[in-house]
């Protein structure tokens, strides 16, 4: 651990959780994402996402409304494209390639149901050696840890990061 990391200590936002999922999910998934965001904020974790709609907006809304730090890494250059619940907007201009930045920024990844974009994030996270927690999602992908509730997802994510 560096001197800066030692000095920083355990402050809100120290744990960064990347959250990935579909940009047009069903209402049930929206509810799960909001709850995950809220619970992560209550645990002092920062939420990193793609900054746009769907799961990204729902998780950011949950965290934002609970007073948490939200970071959105956008595919384009327009900061105003971010959903209104992203506190730190990073316009990457990288298109889908920004997916690697999203998952690399998380100490752990929580993956919701999604399609090819989300699958790419799950695969990249696993390739980078990140723990990936699938919330009722990605059952057929080797290496994804399965959970059934938002509470389980957050508890496991925090416990995973806090292990020595």
What is the compact description of this entry?
This protein has helices at about 5-10, 25-40, 55-65, 100-105, 115-125, 150-160, and strands spanning about 15-20, 45-50, 70-75, 90, 110, 130-135, 145.
By CATH reckoning, the class would read Alpha Beta
Low-pLDDT segments: 4-10
- Beta content: 15-25%
Distance between the first and last residues' Cα? 12 Å
What is the CATH topology classification name?
Rossmann fold
* Whole-number count of domains: 1
Q: How does CATH name the architecture?
A: 3-Layer(aba) Sandwich
Mean pLDDT: 93
Q: What is the 3D shape?
A: globular
Major beta sheet summary: 7 strands, parallel
Helix content: 40-55%
Radius of gyration: 14 Å
- Determine the structural class based on helices, strands and strand pairing: alpha/beta
The number of distinct β-strands equals: 7
State the order of secondary-structure elements, H for helix, E for strand.
HEHEHEEHEHEEH
How would you write the strand order of the largest sheet?
4-3-2-1-5-6-7
What's the number of helices?
6
Short key terms for the protein model shown above:
seven-stranded parallel β-sheet; 164 residues; Rossmann fold; globular; single chain; alpha/beta; 18% strand
Describe, in plain words, how this protein is organized in 3D.
The structure is a single chain. The chain has a seven-stranded parallel sheet, sandwiched between helices. Helices cover 40% and strands 18% of the residues. With 164 residues, it is an alpha/beta fold. α2 (27-42) links the parallel β1 (16-20) and β2 (46-49). The longest helix is centred in the N-terminal third of the chain and has 16 residues, at 27-42. The protein has six helices and seven strands. It has a single domain (17-95, 124-162), classed as Rossmann fold (3-Layer(aba) Sandwich), CATH 3.40.50.
């Amino acid at each position: 651990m560096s001197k800066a990391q030692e000095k920083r200590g355990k402050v809100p936002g120290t744990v960064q959780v990347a959250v990935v999922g579909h940009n047009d999910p069903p209402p049930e998934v929206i509810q799960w994402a909001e709850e995950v965001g809220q619970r992560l904020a209550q645990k002092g974790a920062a939420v990193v996402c793609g900054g746009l709609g769907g799961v990204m907006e729902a998780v950011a809304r949950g965290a934002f409304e609970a007073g948490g730090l939200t970071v959105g890494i956008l595919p384009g250059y327009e900061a105003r494209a971010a959903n209104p619940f992203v506190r730190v907007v990073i316009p990457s201009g990288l298109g889908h390639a920004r997916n690697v930045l999203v998952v690399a920024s998380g100490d752990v990844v929580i993956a919701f149901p999604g399609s090819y974009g989300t699958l790419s994030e799950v695969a990249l996270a696993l390739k980078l050696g990140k723990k990936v927690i699938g919330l009722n999602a990605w059952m057929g992908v080797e290496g994804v840890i399965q959970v059934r509730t938002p509470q389980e997802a957050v508890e496991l994510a925090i416990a995973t990061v806090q292990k020595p």
